[in-house]
Amino acid sequence: MPAVPDDILDYTTSCALPTPWAQFTLHAFVEHATGKEHLAMVLGDISNGEPVLARVHSECLTGDVLFSQRCDCGAQLEGALRRIAAEGRGVLLYLRQEGRGIGLVNKIRAYRLQEAGADTVEANLQLGFHADQRNYGLVKPMLEHFKVRALRLMTNNPRKIDALEKLGFSVTERVPLIVNRNAFNTGYLDTKAAKLGHMMTPVEEAVAEDGEL
Ligand SMILES: [Zn+2]
What we know:
Shape: globular
CATH class of the largest domain: Alpha Beta
CATH architecture of the largest domain: 3-Layer(aba) Sandwich
CATH topology of the largest domain: Rossmann fold
Bound molecules: zinc ion
Oligomer: single chain
Number of strands: 7
Order of helices and strands: EEEEHHEHHHHEHEH
Active site: 132 (proton acceptor), 134 (nucleophile)
CATH superfamily of the largest domain: GTP cyclohydrolase II
Largest sheet: 7 strands, mixed
Mean pLDDT: 89
Binding site for Zn(2+): 60, 71, 73
GO molecular function: 3,4-dihydroxy-2-butanone-4-phosphate synthase activity; GTP binding; GTP cyclohydrolase II activity; zinc ion binding
EC number: 3.5.4.25
Low-confidence stretches: 1-5, 203-213
């Protein structure tokens, strides 16, 4: 029997988590190397082999909790949970890698540089970081815990799809999450599209197949 290659975190415990949209089950994991606590919100039977509607969401305290309009994270988090609730089945992984992996204080430093004219990528580089420091390796043992192999992934980020496919998951569909473009984040979203390859163009509504409009 091969050694466990992904022994980088442990499943710890679970509880019911009622939200405005559905009652999820909240699962807690602890990462060995850092002690960071990562979460999975699960609805329905996701272990039955059918592709699972999924969101891999990286922590954004300012956007997820403090209602910041500098980014689209809070709206993406809510939008993903609403969509999972509407389908009655899915998983949201909440990874504690704040600020594309640079941490909260450094993200605030980066915001300050952006107020002086840098864009989000330039600010990270000026602080000595890569444009995106996130590591999706955690996703593998978390999803394997639930026996999930195929995803319908809610994301605008093609690099996230590539990362998950390299980890061995099948991404059978990309579900766009284009929400909360506003006067404060339009430059940020444009930079993510231009420099990080995010797909920010809304998908046109499918024309009614029966020809009736
Ligand atoms: Zn954010």
